[in-house]
Amino acid sequence: MKAKPERTKKSDNSVKEQLALYTSTPQEKKLIDTTSTFSENVSLPIHRWFRYSAGFSALWVRNLISKERANGRYTVIDPFAGSGTVLLEAERCGMLSIGLEAHPFVARIANVKLFWREDGSIFREYALSILEEARRIRGEDNGYPQLIKKCFPSGTLRRLDSLRRAWEEAADESPLSELSWLALTSILRECSPVGTAQWQYVLPKKRKAKSVDPFRAFTEKIYLMTDDMFTRQHEEHGPKAVLSREDARTCDSVPDDWADLLITSPSIYRDINAVWCRITNNEAYQPSIFNYSS
Asked: Cα separations (Å) of 1 from 5, 73, 75, 97, 273?
C-alpha cells in the first residue's frame, strides 16, 4: 500500500462545514441525477445476489472512488454499509475499506457477498448437494405463520421447507454454508406468487404473473452466483474489505483518523455528524464526504 498523503489541517472547519463537501459540483450533481438507485445493480455480478431496495448505485460508487483514488485517497469507510455496495466497489478499485452495519440480517448479506473469492466449483458442488438432500426430505407447511401461508402455496412452501432443513443439516457457518444460505434467502421473493412493493412490502391480495419452483430457482441462483465468482475473480481487485456488525454511533472498531473518504447513504443528516465525530478526534482533519441521498 502506498503511503497516505499528508492531510491538510484547516482548524476553522467544523463538522458542519465538512458536511458541506457533499457532492455539489455541476459534474457530480449531473452524475447523481442520471444514475438510478439499486435497480442498476441487479445486472452487476455479486451485487445482484440479493435485491436490496435500500441500496444505491454501484456504478456511482465506482466512478466516485476511482476519481478520489486519483486524487490521492486510499481508505474509504461506509458507516451504513447495508448490503455492501461501497465495500465491493472499493475492493474493485484497490482501496482499503471498512463498513459498519448494525442490522444483523443486512450485515449478514453484505458479509456473504464478500465471500466471492471462494472457489466457485467447490461452492457449486456443496450447494447442489444441499439441493439433492432437499429432494429426499419431506417438507412441511405446518408451523409457519399465517402470513407466510398467504404468500406461498402449500407445495411451494413444502419445497422451501425441504431446502431450509437440508441447509440446516449441513450449516457450519463456513463461507460455503453462508453462500448457500444467501442463495436460499434470495429466491424467496421469486418463488412467491404474491405481489411485492418497491421496498419489498408483501401485498398478499395482489398476484404476480408467474412464480418459480423453489428447486429450480435455487439451482439457477447457484449457477448465477458461481458464474459471478468466476467472472469477478478474473477481474482486477484489491484487498478484502472489512465489515463490522456494530452501531455507527460508536465506531469502536475503526481507528481514529483511519479514513480519508466517506461514502454512505444515511437516512438523516445528523447521522453523518455523529459518525464523523466518532472516527476522528481531529476537527481540523478534512476528509471527502459523499452522501448518495443528498
From this structure: 12, 12, 10, 13, 29
